[in-house]
Amino acid sequence: MNKIEEALHKLFGKHRLIFWYDENQELMDQYNELSLENVKKIHVQGNEFEVKHIVVKQFPTDQFLLYFNDKKPLNEENWLLDLELANYIFQTDQEAMFLQEMGLSYHLKELVGEHLEFFKAKDRRNKLKEYIDKDDDFLTIRYKMLAVVFGTENISLPTFVHTFGSAYIDNSDRYEKELERYNLTEFFWKEIERKYKYFNETPTIYDFLLEVFSNNFSLGKKTELSKESRLLLSLWKDTFQYREYFGKISDKISTDTDVEAKLNSAVIEDILSDDTYKLIDLKIIHELVHLISEEDISVERVGQMVKERENKFWFQEYENFYLCLLYASQLISLIRKYGNTKYESFNEGVTNYSDVLYEIDQTYRKFVWSYRKTNQNKILSELSEKIDKVYSNDWLMVYGNNWQKVIDKTTKWEPQNSQSDFYNTYIKSSFEKQRRLFVIISDAFRYECGVEFTKRLQAENRFEATISTMVSSLPSYTKLGMASLLPHNNLTIKEGSDFVLADGMSTEGVQGRTKVLQTNAGSRTTAIGAEDFMSMNSAKEGREFVKQYDLIYIYHNRIDNTGDDKVTERKGFDAVEEEIAFLMKMTRKVNAMNGKNMIITSDHGFIYQDNKIDESDYSRSDHSGELWSINRRFIIGKNLINDNATKKFNGEDLGLQSGIDVLIPKSINRLRVKGSGSRFIHGGSTLQEIVIPVIKVSVKDVSTTSNVEIDIIKSTDKITTNILAVSFMQKELVTEQMLPRFIRAVIVADDGEELSDQFKFKFDIEEGSERQKEVKYRFQLSSKASGKYKNQTVRLVLEEPVENSTKWKEYKEFYYTLNISFTNDFDD
For a 10 Å CB count at each end of the chain, is N or C smaller? Predict the structure, then answer.
């Protein structure tokens, strides 16, 4: 089927009569050869009246192809004008053929002729046909032709620029050549000139972008570009498909225009809200490192600055740098405030540490963890050295020495909430009531880790979690801690070792602990390793396993296993992060096996210093006697004699058998033990080692969490300028169950067109007045707001992310009327 036959076939699907004027008789042979099913052919040669009688009277419903081998007559001389107007004229020039194929009106012939090369490819014609509406004018159609050229779904000039710029940075001149080939170059740059006021006799995409970036850089040279250029960059950063290319072209421009030189003398406040270039983040980080190291900036100001950068383009890349700065500032502030805290009593120290001061050790851990995630970047090395010194010397040593004065006065280890009473205090009543209980014991999961884990659990819907304090047995090492958590009447150290017996039974491993549980608590108890538990299918073997027991102890050893190894001890904080994530999975797994009640606890805590341990941190202990076990932080034996470097307890003082002695190095000092690690330690009597969490978890059938509500303070419902200032209000403070809300806000027309830049913000304010819960943003509106959409109703749409996806869903909307004066389209 040739093109003419194919075109006629399509046209007869819509029309009964088709008129074909072949003035030069070029296609008469093709007419004669044509054979169209159910279509009658008539060669009209001065017999118009006869033809009219045939098609109207004789065969009023049949289809006819009327062929004329001369030119179309004037209307006043056309005997068949009424039929012609009611039906279709078949054109056979190339432009007309394309229009007919696409089902478009003949008045577009001039446009097709101007861009004929564009229309020669069938795939381009078909794609354009998908976009075009019958009422489109020439301008709109050319925009849609550009969308076909650039391969974009969004028909907008900013999207074309994003695509063009992205190709340029990939060293592709494809679009430049195609615009030229399809005669669209002049149109494209005239539209750029009209919208952005970019004037250049020989425009190029890179030259244009140089001006756009310079004009929108806080320290850049201002050009004659319109305010629309701000939106161009804002939209580029927020476009998922092209945002990577924004970063690439920004980096090239920053090098080509020597942005670094401009930033060298910049003040942070001048660039804090700017994210045109990556170098801005590097400059801010560089300045904050020195300000925090010199303690010349308040922790509140650092927090404000980090929050300001939180939704900027490069924040995700430098998030761990900013977190390092935030944690460093918080840590120094906390240590300066609490570093020299002293206590009158043992219980006072435990209470104060678990209420407030655990935050110091937690913040240090978070700093080290974030520093590691920056690959220990050299920009932070000065700050890291400062933090290690402040933490070790002004916190651990001073606080440890002060606490040691309390320990020195302690003769018997009989703390409130003793670990040795764990079973009777937390387990027995639940077990006796036959309420199934899961006890999860994570080795070396110290108190501050428990606080973080509890907060994450509280944010988990349908999970309720509370944390309380328990004091570990002494020495604070694994074998004794694990034994203390089992039901028992008495604990003893096995002669010549550090192994612990519960009522004469071994407490080693899962088998030993299962035997103690079943002997002292009853047959419906068991112990299992965490990995074995997690490997079970929840719906089948898991539930069958759980049915057999009312009390299940689950053991996991990640943190201690990592920290106690000299080779891996520096990964101790990595292990904490991994363990918290693992415990979150485990609690969900327990719930999936119909477990509603859990207790998470630990055997002991730990001290960790990331810096190399000084000689002064090692004790020169002159001790003697029968040594059963020696560790960095304790010695167990018989008839031990000590000096001032250690504190001595006898077995009865510690709730163990008589006849043994325990020596504990004072404060944070370590004993020299060959082959043992020195950064990660436990076994001693510091609060970091002995204060451990008891986290009670219950699963509810109803929701336990919600997100804070966001509203706006709306003083008017009219938008009268291209800038709309909006005050967003976080209605509630963030708490354990009242969670933050992340929103994206943009002004949108009824047809879905976005008319402004986007505002993104995480509302996570935890304290403050009504005013402190207010966040202001100035939306920049596009020129369409005062043009195409003038006097229309538009919406300020607030969206929130769809969980586990890149999609957004509408949260709230607020209506405004656009009433912007034309003068607002002029630059200031």
Answer: C
Cα dist from 226 to 5, 194, 780, whole Å: 52, 9, 12
The burial of 45, by beta-carbon neighbours within 10 Å (0-12 exposed, 13-18 middle, 19 or more buried), is given as exposed
Joined tokens for residue 729: 């209000």
- Phi and psi at 310, nearest 5°, equal -55, -35
CA angle 537, 540, 544 (to 5 degrees): 110
88: burial class by Cβ within 10 Å (0-12, 13-18, 19+)? middle
Chain-centre distance for alpha carbon 413: 47
Residue 825 has pLDDT above 70, yes or no: no
Six token digits for residue 88? 């279709």
pLDDT tens digits for 647-692?
A: 999 999 999 999 999 999 999 999 988 777 789 999 999 999 999 9
63-68 β-sheet, strand order:
39-44, 63-68, 17-21, 88-90
Choose among 249, 247, 284, 248: nearest CA to 263: 284
- What is the Cα–Cα distance from 225 to 490, expressed in whole angstroms? 83
* Model confidence, pTM: 0.84
The DSSP 8-state label assigned to residue 618 in this structure reads B
Encode pLDDT of 356-397 as tens digits: 999 999 999 999 999 999 998 899 999 999 999 999 999 999
Both structure tokens of 731: 């209605």
CA atoms of 194 and 508, how far apart (whole Å): 80
Specify the higher pLDDT residue, 467 or 623.
467
- CA nearest neighbour of 737 among 705, 766, 698, 696: 705
**Nearest CA-CA partner of 463 in 587, 302, 353:** 587
Query: Hey, how many other C-beta atoms are within 10 angstroms of the C-beta on 59?
Result: 13
d(CA 17, CA 32): 17
Q: How many other C-beta atoms are found inside a 10 Å radius of the C-beta of residue 62?
A: 13
Which H or E run contains 99? Answer: helix 94-102
- 790-807 tens-digit pLDDT: 889 999 999 999 988 888
Q: What is the DSSP letter of 492?
A: E
C-alpha 722/C-alpha 357 separation (Å) is 50
What's the chain's average pLDDT?
91
List the one residue out of 31, 45, 109, 28 whose CA is nearest residue 80. Answer: 45
| Residue 827 pLDDT exceeds 50 | no
Residue 600 has phi, psi (to 5 degrees) of -110, 130
Q: CA 348, CA 36: separation in Å to the nearest integer? A: 102
Burial degree of 795 (CB within 10 A; 0-12, 13-18, 19+): middle
Q: Do residues 510 and 530 touch, judged by C-beta distance below 8 A?
A: no
Tokens of 687: 């609060």
The C-alpha atoms of residue 199 and residue 602 are separated, in whole angstroms, by: 70
